[in-house]
Amino acid sequence: MNTALELKNVSKSFGLVKANKNINLAVEAGSIHGIIGENGAGKSTLMNIIYGMHRADSGEIHFGGQHVDVRSSADAIEHGIGMVHQHFMLVPTFTVLENVMLGTEGGLMLRDGRGAALERLLHLSETYNLKVDPHALVSDLNVGQRQRVEIIKALKGGAKVLILDEPTGVLTPQEADQLFEILKVLRDDGVSVLLITHKLSEIMDITDTVSIMRQGEMVGHRKTSETSPQELAELMVGREVLLEVDRKPAKPGEVRFSAKNLGYTNAQGVVELEDINFEVRSGEILGVAGVSGNGQTQLMETLAGMRHLTSGSLNILGTEVTAADQTDPRIIRDLGVGHIPEDRHTHGLVLNFEARENMILGFQDTGLAGDGKLFDYTAIQKNCEDKMAHYDVRPPNPRLNAKNFSGGNQQKIVIAREFSANPGVLLVGQPTRGVDVGAIEFIHKQLLELRDAGCAILLVSVELDEIMSLSDRIMVLCDGQNVGIIDSAKADRQTLGLMMAGQRQEAAA
Amino acid sequence: MSTPTPPLPRWADLILLPIINLFAAFFICGLIVLAIGENPIEALGVMIKGAFVYSGGLGYTLFYTTNYIFTGLAVALAFHCMMFNIGGEGQALIGGLGAALASFGLGVYLPAPLAIPLAVLGAFIAGGIWGVIPGYLQAKRGSHIVITTIMFNFLAASLMVYLLAGPMLEAGQQSPQTARLAESTLLPKMADMLRPLGINITSSPLNASFLIALGAMAVFYVLVWHTRLGFNIRSVGQNQEAAHYAGINVARTIIITMAISGGFAGLLATNEILGFNHKVVLNFTAGYGFTGIAVALMGRNHPIGIFLAALLFGALTQGGGELDFEFQSITREMVLLIQGMIILFSGALAYMFNPPLARMIAKFVAPKDPANG
Amino acid sequence: MADFLYQLLLSFDATLRIATPLMLCAMAGIFSERSGIVDISLEGKLLSGAFVAATVAALTGSAWLGLGCAMLAGIFMSLIHGFACITHKGDQVVSGVAINILASGLTIVLGIALFKRGGQTPSLPREDRFTPIEWWGVDMMDSVPVLGTIYRQLISGHNMLVYVALLAVPLTAFILYRSRFGLRLRAVGEVPEAVDSAGISVTWLRYRALIVGGALCGIAGAYLSIAQGGNFVREMSAGKGYIALAAVIFGNWKPLSAFMACLMFGFLEAATTRLEGVALPLIGEVPTQLMLAMPYVLTVLLLAGFIGKPRPPAAIGKPYHK
Questions:
Q1: Tell me, what's the pLDDT at A506?
Q2: Lower CB density within 10 Å: C or N end of chain A?
């Protein structure tokens, strides 16, 4: 009965993309309400509309039964909405207290409100067990601590509705549990919590009610107690999903790629990878699991030559690479390593380039661009047309800029390019992030085909399911260290979860 | 912003939008002329006549156009690499130094067919050096190219004042300038070149450098869109991280780009020094380097566009000179004002007219469903 | 020795006079750049301020009106900058270049139209300018050795705008570090998203920073044309806006450090005029061009990380997109 927040027919477009279509949503006071959907389903846009960061093109927002025109975050805050963004909104050069004060300084001079703000901060931190030093610089805090600052910020004005956008992506399962405890306390205090996530388990564990989004639309509302992960998954993707991939046992051959005591320390002197050992054989997939931000990106980029390893060595198809070698992506590529980068928008594609230009990115010095000194656009066009046909890229238009393809088709362009080069070793990062379901199946099939053709594949993904269903062996990273490598047949969520939190296992492989 | 904007059709983006921006710039300038108490239409008429109609006017226009092509190409090449080269002014100045050194050092011993290319190369290399240092500092030391190139403009000016008033001062001269360059390194006037072919045009400063500018445009086109280096430059410009991923050496690409960009700017000296002044004088760059920014912006970093924009600015410069003779209260400095407005509208405010224009076109093209939501 | 000290004192005195417009423009640059807006248009605002101050003072006979209008002119130029790069998210450097060229053209065109003197404004009578203020007790202090001279030459005897500039520095620091506006300003230059999500308008905040900067540049312009000088001359800003920008960078975007940089650059220029043609022990005669180019050389070296490590505001130059 008591509705804290209600949306009626909210729509929002960006250019030609309809991010939200006629969304209706009602959130009970004093409940935890989940919003679930795939990446790109429009969850974040919707939350940003509620919080006033974006303005809806049409539709109504009601807070506590009252129609409100939310023009800016100031309006939302005034009506008791607090939000913890997926990307933290903190000023790293400020102290925790300064960050908390921002926007509610309590007077023209900082002196006027500092005492009261500090008191409020300590009170919140006490009540909800949000431990953090008010005078520490935010740049010195770790991710978990920063999230606590964000929660304090969201609660400081006495929020009635707290929105959390993908809050657990950066947390270990244990840290996530702590967060959920805090959320339960908040609920019992009468706060409505809106939890945005794409993880089914979180929805089942903690929410009271759940709404499901797909491609910008709200496709269902359920009581959590009356639904199942299977049903939610179906609603999310719009059809029955096979959570299992048809994978034949691997036939591993010779070792193609190995790391020995690999370490990487960044320019600021922070150790990001330490003492990593593994080997990948021809015809197998080694999965790399871990909470995001535990060194996966650094590992991929070090292996691909985009960062210089600072200790240990690599053996790539028989070539030894040590910290003394100034590697770069060109050298690694020339050794026969293909690389599907984790973030195709920043690394894999030049969005303002035509598809055909992207199809030779990284191969611009090879015959793909023409045999002579100048580019041969006939050959470049042909190359792109062939690969688009083979990998079913739609629309099959080589002259279209990469930014105008859907996420799945962009990823197919990257995959077409890297797979066609017949790499001896393939590094794959987040192959299906933001990709629609049809494309996911296709990509998974292609990966397994490549494996069976004898390629040695290293797969990094934050989706544990993906790792478990594709990998033959799984390496777990925590805090830049290899916690262990286990056979995927013996891996279950429980074991992997503990390993992701840093508990070492007896290496089973 | 609530209403979504449909994308602009290509023709509107490439032709209509620049024209609207240009019109807006002229409109505001017209208002200022009106406020001063003169007739803007009349002023425009005087400028057009001066630029194209009067005998020799076109020659002067193309002479200035040549300058703008060089600095426009310089800025545009750097833009393709997402580098903002505001240093065209300094690079052109040092280009003059390079041309002079080549002329004094080697030109005196060589016949024109050898000496001219060497002097041109001298201008290119010297300008390139003045561009490559900021490029290196950006690529390897992370100094911001905008600030560094601004500083290098001042450094070039200081250096030239020092050299022209000191070591390179022509004996017996009061005003800071060098002696006349070696005859064999001077570029022929266009009128003299065409006369043997039976074509008689009014003599003007227009000289063989114009042909070098046309050649530079062709080189620019092939370089940017048909070579591996061009692909690398554009990749680095559009997405440095993807370029790095693709095995492109980002730092080296930036450095090479700035070297060539500086070289293009340096070539301005072939027109002003080798083709016209025949000696190095103070401040011969006269703001062409800065206007190159406007030329590149208006020309959308494409040689054809750059040529048209350079022609416009060449005509403005030449036509603006006529204002001095015809009017009491408006002078050639009016052109500065127009330039500023053009940079403002076609650069900083480039997309101000985009959403309304796109909506209008959308309405016009598909009038059935104008409303959204 | 006494003569040397006296010469040094005069150099300091000249330093202060040269550094005054630099200080004002540098503080303007700090407001703008700390809010995340690149400001190479300091030069154009300075020039506009100088022109308007001299014009209004010449037409009305009031230096104060001249000063007020100069501030408005600076603000107007700032608003153009803001309209282009905040409202329409245009490129901040392009907009800055446009404003500098506009200012250069506009001041000459309007100057010729108004006064028909080739771009100059008429010379103002002394009473229409900001004249040096003699401090209380200068004559009395004269009897005190050293201190008396310092008091007369260095502390007393400047026009009001010099003192305004000297006050602007601690005031800027105070606003930046102690006030609500300053906290938000620093935040918006680092992480504008944080400011937006705290319910504060990024747009309005940045506009305010630019407005303050425009007013400061206007004062600096008035100093050039109706305090230090007595009329406006074409291009009279002569690169001072760029030197001020260099000082901002040199001072690592901090008011007090930028102030020191202004003094250093000012001293270099003051020393140049005194050292012209003088052979220094050990070094010999230093070319004046080298001395005058020192601010640029130093800034280039600093930016390249050869002297210290500059840390610009994180969000500088990037338009804010929601």
A1: 54
A2: N
Q: B188 phi and psi, to 5 degrees?
A: -70, 150
Residue of B96, B102, B101 whose CA lies nearest to B156: B96
Tell me the C-alpha distance between B37 and B39, whole Å.
Answer: 7
Contacts of C68 (CB under 8 A, 6+ apart): none
Could you tell me if B241 lies within 8 Å of chain A, comparing CB atoms? yes
**Residue C183's closest chain A neighbor by CA?**
A102
Q: How many Cα neighbours within 13 Å face the side chain of C206?
A: 33
Asked if A54's CB is within 8 angstroms of C197's CB, the reply is no
Burial of residue C157 (CB within 10 Å: 0-12, 13-18, 19+) is middle
Using omega within 30 degrees of 0 as the cis cutoff, is the peptide bond preceding A395 cis? yes
- Amino acid identity of C151? Y
Q: CB-based contact (8 Å) between A356 and chain B?
A: no
| Nearest CB partner across the interface for A346, out of B1, B5, B242 | B242
- Tell me what ipTM this predicted complex has: 0.89
SS3 of residue A271 by DSSP: strand
Domains of chain C: 2-303 (1.10.3470)
**Closest residue in B to A366 (Cα–Cα):** B228
Is the CB of residue A119 less than 8 Å away from at least one CB of chain B?
no
Residues 6+ apart with CB under 8 A from A354: A398, A399, A400, A401, A402
Segments of A327-375 assigned E as strands: 337-340
Residue C43: C-alpha distances to residues B72, B297, C18, C26, C48 (Å): 23, 22, 15, 11, 9
DSSP B177: B
CB contact under 8 A, A374 and B222: yes
CB B280 within 8 A of CB B96: yes
Residues of A in contact with B222 (CB under 8 A): 374
Tell me: the pLDDT tens digits for B199-243?
Answer: 888 889 999 999 999 999 999 999 999 999 999 999 999 999 999
The torsion angle over the Cα atoms of residues B127, B130, B133 and B136, rounded to 10 degrees, is: -30
Contacts of C among chains (3+ CB pairs under 8 A):
A, B
Whole-number Å distance between alpha carbons of C225 and C233? 8
Could you write out the DSSP letters of every residue in B87-108? THHHHHHHHHHHHHHHHHHTGG
Average pLDDT by stretches of 10, chain A with 509 residues: 87 82 93 87 90 91 90 90 91 96 92 94 91 93 88 91 87 80 92 88 91 90 90 76 70 92 88 93 93 87 92 92 88 93 90 95 90 91 94 90 87 93 93 77 90 94 85 92 90 81 60
pLDDT for residue A509 = 39
Picking from A361, A373, A378, A428 by the largest number of B CB atoms within 10 A of its own CB, the best residue to mutate is A361
Whether residue A50 contacts residue A25, with contact meaning beta carbons closer than 8 Å, is answered with: no
* Beta strands at A17-28 and A3-14: parallel, antiparallel or unpaired: antiparallel
For the beta sheet containing A456-460, the strands, ordered from the edge strand earlier in sequence to the opposite edge, are: A319-322, A311-316, A255-265, A271-281, A481-487, A473-478, A285-289, A456-460, A425-429, A337-340
Determine whether the interchain pair A57/B231 forms a contact, defined as Cβ–Cβ distance below 8 Å: no
Smallest CA–CA separation between C143 and chain B, in Å? Answer: 45
Q: At what angle do helices C2-34 and C240-250 cross, to 10 degrees?
A: 80
Read off the pLDDT of each residue in B136-158 and give the average, rounded to a whole number.
Answer: 93
End-to-end CA distance of chain B: 14
Q: Tell me the nearest-neighbour CA distance from C128 into chain B, angstroms.
A: 26
In B, minimum Cα distance to A11 occurs at: B373
pTM to 2 decimal places:
0.89
Residue B184: Cβ within 10 Å count: 19
Q: Where are the alpha helices (DSSP H) in C158-316?
A: 160-178, 180-190, 192-197, 202-223, 240-250, 255-275, 288-303
| A303 Cα to chain B: minimum distance (Å) | 12
